[in-house]
Fold:
Amino acid sequence: MSFTEEFGTRVTVVDHPMVQHKLAILRDEGTSSKQFRELVRELALFEGYEATRDLPLEDVRVKTPITEATCKMVQGKKLAIVPILRAGLGMVEGMLELMPAAKVGHLGMYRDETTHEPHEYYAKMPEDIASREVLVVDPMLATGGSAIAALHYLRKCGVKNLKLAVIVAAPEGIRAVLAADPEVQVFTCAIDQGMNEACYIVPGLGDAGDRIFGTK
Ligand SMILES: O=P(O)(O)OC[C@H]1O[C@H](OP(=O)(O)OP(=O)(O)O)[C@H](O)[C@@H]1O
Ligand SMILES: O=c1cc[nH]c(=O)[nH]1
Ligand SMILES: [Mg+2]
Structure:
């Protein structure tokens, strides 16, 4: 069964040629931290473009230099971007370029190196998070543990409309997320083969947080 058949409309693979090109450079172990950060920002912008495709529009009257016309503008929808620290921070700037009025909540989470379980160490959300449409961002979806913990936290905050944008996903992680949250929509630039024994995505791109911040 193909991933399209298995995941249906709940998963969108953003596989535009420019996205695939940038992702190939991102995966390359020789790519510097500076270029890695720039690519993560750019890929986030492309993903944000897809993730906001269903935003409601309203009619506005515009006077062009030629005549008056009825045009469309995005309704004043309340949005929030929630990066999972650290690596998710790399995607915030690109998302904000697209949605400058969005609020940003932060969720600190690290994966235990042995058990691969997520540990939450920080959370700061906009006060009105429950009434916002929320886009959780993190470049990597491996076992799905971190994303599931983030989605669970946001559901407990009362968030109704949740989307998750990652850059590289393992099929196991997607399955786990879809099973844990029956409504979340997932956006990814690639679905990889799987994970190795250390739960790193294969072929993946290594440790996204370390590559963004140059910590290894
Ligand atoms: O799907 P999972 O198995 O939970 O793995 C994915 C998580 O692991 C990475 O974070 P990490 O724990 O390395 O923290 P960091 O962002 O601080 O590097 C990544 O950015 C995700 O948050
Ligand atoms: O491949 C992986 C898996 C988890 N976290 C990463 O940064 N990369
Ligand atoms: Mg990391």
